């Protein structure tokens, strides 16, 4: 989903319904995007993220390492920067 981290009410920091729904359903962590993401580059980042999870990393480290891989490959920040982890 695109722009899942979009804030509805800046004054009260009310997040989009999707984030709230995950938290209400019991999710401890939610990865959001701040803007529309690339159909070309995102699958590569997601594959790297899940590879890291499968290797035993926690969700925070798995996302961080996937982003670092993109940085080391000199990928434009547009492709890796919109992904943020919100956790309880």
Low-confidence stretches: none
What is the residue-averaged pLDDT?
Answer: 85
The tally of domains stands at 1
- Report the total helices: 4
Provide the helix percentage.
Answer: 40-55%
Radius of gyration: 14 Å
How many β strands by DSSP?
A: 4
Strand order of the largest sheet: 1-2
Helix and strand succession?
EEHEHHHE
Q: What is the approximate shape?
A: globular
> Tell me about the biggest sheet?
2 strands, antiparallel
Share of β-strand residues: 15-25%
Structural class: alpha+beta
Short description:
It contains 4 helices and 4 strands.
Question: Can you tell me about this structure?
Answer:
The protein is of the alpha+beta class and 88 residues long. It has one domain (7-87). The protein has helices at 17-24, 42-54, 59-72, 77-80, and strands at 7-9, 14-15, 29-33, 83-87. A two-stranded antiparallel ribbon has the order 1-2. The chain has a two-stranded antiparallel sheet with strand order 3-4. Strand 1 (7-9) and strand 2 (14-15) form a beta hairpin. The protein is globular. The protein starts with 6 loop residues before the first strand and ends with a strand. The mean pLDDT is 85.
